[in-house]
């Protein structure tokens, strides 16, 4: 560079000397020749100066250009890696006091430090502030993802506005054994689970799953699919893909095993968390498989000593994503699992079949009352409470505007109209016929089911605040039986004292004609115990009705009854008025006939429909005093 500068200067000096030493010219031509020489000199100077200036600029630019990769590496010097430990084992001393950080990263590290304070209020405030951070750089979210403790991670997963970059992708899954498949691994896991502490139904599910999976494996190796054995009556209810069908048998059995705490330990020790995650990813397009997997993880999350293993395996990240799903069932399953993991703000435990529809995330909104939804025969926690089916919603595979159509109106409509309510929906297995029962050995009476549900609801904290019960069909009989059972147990007195009222949608208080058709016409082969108990001449049903009416009058419960006026098709042949007006008359509260059939009595056509608006009015009026306090 110095040589180039010297050469340019020398050139300029030579030019000047040539001008100065030139021989004298004739006077007549001197002015024009001088002008020509001046132009040459000026042009040379301008050209040389331009080249010199351009070179200097380019050299300066090259010398100050930043290597962005170096900058990123400098930023990542503050990126730390920690071993996952239990939230209650985190030491309270100043962990971050010696970290060298830039000024713009102070907020990140201060919030991390705050999230580990001894004060619970400070920790909750830190999680709230983290969830509201939407202006950070990617590397700052990665810092939180790597450095936060499990308690903070779960809190972020349950925060509605949390950025997804807070959650690291699940760790790599271990490779399958040589000459093994996911189906074989699942079968091996099921076979390794203990056969102790299990009832006849669980034995049935386990033997059925092992039998069907062994037939499937043999057929695959032979190049054929086989649907023989006990699985034939159930194949239509599980799916169309053969492999998914077989694995559904195994998953159903594992779901039952996961309801036993000691069996959850065996599932975790056998690599079940990783295997279930592999299945979850493999069957992204099979919602039934994914829901059963989430049921298992939700059951395992009831055991607090398994929380570190669940977090380490990456399930919190998966559930955080599922919680934001537009599909209400998927989001509700994820919400149940995360609530069972969140021991910072949730003291209740949600067992299998108990789903919180609202609130599903952490909220500052105080919850002042509970509303419970109990479905009836052949119903479910979500589909029973969907909006009246519209042709567009059934034929178009699109995300429908929830204001126009909802697959669960308590979650979509009631939660917005009454945000201070905790809304719970309960699910349990029922059947019209023992021939189509999921478990042929299962004979669960209304009394048995009521005790089972009562135990689950108490674990969920039902009874600790004012309650309204909403039920459809046989679900109303379960509500009546539960309240009568609770009234006989002093430890459940709070549940009775906090019950404010109930809504019955076509509940057969005096029996149903469905039982008569099952027995006389034999359309339903081998009617189930649930159906038999609905007979008009059932002594148990009459005693339940008489005892409850006396009890409800004594407690001054508020009651609202709806009843269908249209018959319902059962299959393609029979058209039956399942619950006539006289059977739906409890003898207490208003009785409102609605021009719909038995299935649609709890499915409003729109949010403005009388059926929903009258339900909303009853809830608001019955809980008026509690919601004001």
UniProtKB/TrEMBL annotation:
SUPFAM superfamilies recorded: alpha/beta-Hydrolases (SSF53474), ARM repeat (SSF48371)
Family: Belongs to the SERAC1 family.
Role according to the record: Facilitates the transport of serine from the cytosol to the mitochondria by interacting with and stabilizing Sideroflexin-1 (SFXN1), a mitochondrial serine transporter, playing a fundamental role in the one-carbon cycle responsible for the synthesis of nucleotides needed for mitochondrial DNA replication. Plays an important role in the phosphatidylglycerol (PG) remodeling that is essential for both mitochondrial function and intracellular cholesterol trafficking.
Keywords on record: Endoplasmic reticulum, Lipid biosynthesis, Lipid metabolism, Membrane, Mitochondrion, Phospholipid biosynthesis, Phospholipid metabolism, Transmembrane, Transmembrane helix
InterPro entries on file: AB_hydrolase_fold, ARM-like, ARM-type_fold, SERAC1, ZER1-like_C
GO cellular component: endoplasmic reticulum; mitochondrial membrane
Keyword Protein transport appears in the UniProt entry: no
Protein name as annotated: Protein SERAC1
Location relative to the cell: Endoplasmic reticulum; Mitochondrion membrane
Organism: Cricetulus griseus
PANTHER family: PROTEIN SERAC1
Membrane topology per record: Single-pass membrane protein
GO biological process, one term: phospholipid biosynthetic process
Domain Protein zer-1 homolog-like C-terminal intervals: 259-341
């Amino acid at each position: 560079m110095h040589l180039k500068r010297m050469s340019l200067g020398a050139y300029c000096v030579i030019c000047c000397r040539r001008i100065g030493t030139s021989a004298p010219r004739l006077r007549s031509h001197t002015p024009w020749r001088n002008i020509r020489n001046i132009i040459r000199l000026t042009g040379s100077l301008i050209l040389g100066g331009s080249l010199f200036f351009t070179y200097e600029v380019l050299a300066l630019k090259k010398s100050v250009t930043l290597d962005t990769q170096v900058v990123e590496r400098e930023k990542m010097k503050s990126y730390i890696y920690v071993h996952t430990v239990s939230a209650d084992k985190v030491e309270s001393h100043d962990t971050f006091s010696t970290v060298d950080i830039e000024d713009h990263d102070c907020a990140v590290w201060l919030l991390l430090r705050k999230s580990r304070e001894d004060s619970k209020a400070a920790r909750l405030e830190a999680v709230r502030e983290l969830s509201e951070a939407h202006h950070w750089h990617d590397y700052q979210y990665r810092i939180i993802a790597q450095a936060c403790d499990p308690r903070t991670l779960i809190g972020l997963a349950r925060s509605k506005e949390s950025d997804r970059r807070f959650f690291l992708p699940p760790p790599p899954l271990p490779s399958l054994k040589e000459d093994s498949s996911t189906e074989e691994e699942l079968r091996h896991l099921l076979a390794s689970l203990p056969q102790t502490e299990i009832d006849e139904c669980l034995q049935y599910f386990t033997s059925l799953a092992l039998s069907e999976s062994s037939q499937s494996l043999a057929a695959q190796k032979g190049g054929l699919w086989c649907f023989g054995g006990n699985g034939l009556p159930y194949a239509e209810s599980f799916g169309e893909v053969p492999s998914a069908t077989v694995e559904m048998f195994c998953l159903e059995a594992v779901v039952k095993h996961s309801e036993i705490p000691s069996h959850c330990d065996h599932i975790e020790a056998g690599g079940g968390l990783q295997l279930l995650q592999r299945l979850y990813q493999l069957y992204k397009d099979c919602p039934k498989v994914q829901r059963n997997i989430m049921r298992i993880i939700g059951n395992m999350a009831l055991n607090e000593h398994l929380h570190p293993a669940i977090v380490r395996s990456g399930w919190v990240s998966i559930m955080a994503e599922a919680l934001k799903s537009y599909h209400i069932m998927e989001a509700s399953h994820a919400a149940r699992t995360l609530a069972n993991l969140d021991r910072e703000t949730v003291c209740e435990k949600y067992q299998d079949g108990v789903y919180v529809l609202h609130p599903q995330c952490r909220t500052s909104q105080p919850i002042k009352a509970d509303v419970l939804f109990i479905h009836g025969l052949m119903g479910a926690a979500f589909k029973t409470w969907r909006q009246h089916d519209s042709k567009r919603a059934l034929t178009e595979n699109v995300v429908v505007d929830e204001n126009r159509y909802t697959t669960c109106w308590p979650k979509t409509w009631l939660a917005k109209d009454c945000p201070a309510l905790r809304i719970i929906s309960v699910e349990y297995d029922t059947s019209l016929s023992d021939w189509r029962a999921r478990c042929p050995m299962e004979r669960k009476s209304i009394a048995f089911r009521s005790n089972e549900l009562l135990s689950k609801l108490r674990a969920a904290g039902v009874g600790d605040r004012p309650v309204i019960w909403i039920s459809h069909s046989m679900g109303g009989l379960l509500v009546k039986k539960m309240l009568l059972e609770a009234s006989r147990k002093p430890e459940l007195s709070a549940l009775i004292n906090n019950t404010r009222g109930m809504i019955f949608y076509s509940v057969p208080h005096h029996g149903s004609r469905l039982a008569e058709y099952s027995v006389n016409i034999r359309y339903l082969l081998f009617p189930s115990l649930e159906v038999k108990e609905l007979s008009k001449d059932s002594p148990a049903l009459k005693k339940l009705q008489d005892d409850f009416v006396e009890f409800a009058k004594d407690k001054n419960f508020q009651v609202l009854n709806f009843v269908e006026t249209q018959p319902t098709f059962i299959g393609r042949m029979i058209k039956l008025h399942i619950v006539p007006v006289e059977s739906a008359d409890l003898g207490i509260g208003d009785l409102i006939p609605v021009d719909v059939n038995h299935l649609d009595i709890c499915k409003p056509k729109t949010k403005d429909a009388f059926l929903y608006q009258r339900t909303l009015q009853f809830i608001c009026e019955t809980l008026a005093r509690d919601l004001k306090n």
